[in-house]
Amino acid sequence: MKTEKELKNIVKSKYTKIAEQGKTENAVSCCGATTASNKVYNIMMDDYSETDGYVSDADLGLGCGLPTHFAHINKGDTVIDLGSGAGNDCFVARHETGVEGKVIGIDFTPVMIKKARINAEKLGYNNVEFREGDIDDMPVSNDMADVIVSNCVLNLVPNKQKVIEEIYRVLKPGGHFSISDIVLVGNLPDALREDAEMYAGCVAGAIQKADYLQYISDAGFSNLKIQKEKPITIPEDILSKYLSPDMIKEFNTNSTGIFSITVYAEKPGTKPTKPKLNIAEIQEKTDSCCTPNSGCC
């Protein structure tokens, strides 16, 4: 059994390579980490291309859902994206929160941070920033985010319970999250569960769906609900690298299920209302003060 540090190093090494792969190569494998399949075009990810704010250069084809579609982001919100990669979900969130909001992407792979920053600079987005760090020890203060999103990332972290506790810490009272992730119903074969490539491929690191939801409840979140759920099928030409034909047949006919779920929950409390600017009143005060002889300007 590998340690947390060893598992993190596996993921960091693999995603450094994935950052330089094309979207198509990532889409036909398990989160870009495994050998590509000839059977299907797209194993896990949903199509972002018609989404407002979508930036093709930032889409590496690594997600398993569309959490920003369900995140109820408002203008002026502060949004954090966990495992931000090249910035795709951050840029979609930025479209929702507007220039008056703020978006922070967190990723622990330096090459991903570099790609995301380059993309943000090309777009001229001054209210989107990317911070290098672990999502189980976020480089952000308490109670600062209105919304947290994440797309197929928590399953890559060994200590998922700690990540969920960090989400609770960082959200403002009354804030919420919408997270897409991979979960299991039933047990994976040992050959899949113990393989480092399958761990980096968003499959071997997935936990039981019931445990995942329980961690969220135990952390203190309320109004927990599954916003979307879809089954994930691993093509046989990928499975054959790990399992014999008989084992593949058994795997495909037993009760084990691999699912992408998008989960929503709220941190109890009430967000302070944001004061609305009265432009006319501000202009009146400015005009009355800033006359040529007033001496106040």
Could you give a short description of this structure?
By secondary structure, the chain is of the alpha/beta class. The protein is 33% helix and 20% strand. It has a single domain (4-289), classed as Rossmann fold (3-Layer(aba) Sandwich), CATH 3.40.50.
CATH homologous superfamily label: Vaccinia Virus protein VP39
User: For the largest beta sheet, what order do the strands appear in spatially?
Assistant: 3-2-1-4-5-7-6
Q: Helical content, roughly?
A: 25-40%
Task: Report low-confidence residues grouped into runs of 5 or more.
Answer: 281-297
- CATH fold-level topology: Rossmann fold
CATH-derived architecture:
3-Layer(aba) Sandwich
What number of domains?
Answer: 1
**Mean pLDDT over the residues:** 86
**What global shape is seen?**
globular
Q: Could you tell me the strand content as a percent range? A: 15-25%
The largest β sheet comes out as: 7 strands, mixed
CATH class: Alpha Beta
Radius of gyration: 21 Å
* Extended strand count: 7
Work out the oligomeric state of the chains in this entry. Answer: single chain
> How many angstroms does the end-to-end distance come to?
68 Å
Task: Please describe what this structure looks like.
There is one protein chain. With 297 residues, the chain is of the alpha/beta class. The protein has one domain (4-289): 3-Layer(aba) Sandwich (Rossmann fold), CATH 3.40.50.150. The protein contains eleven helices and seven strands. The chain has a seven-stranded mixed β-sheet. β1 (78-82), α3 and β2 (102-107) form a beta-alpha-beta unit. It is globular. It starts with a helix and ends in an 8-residue tail after the last helix. Residues 281-297 have low confidence and may be disordered.
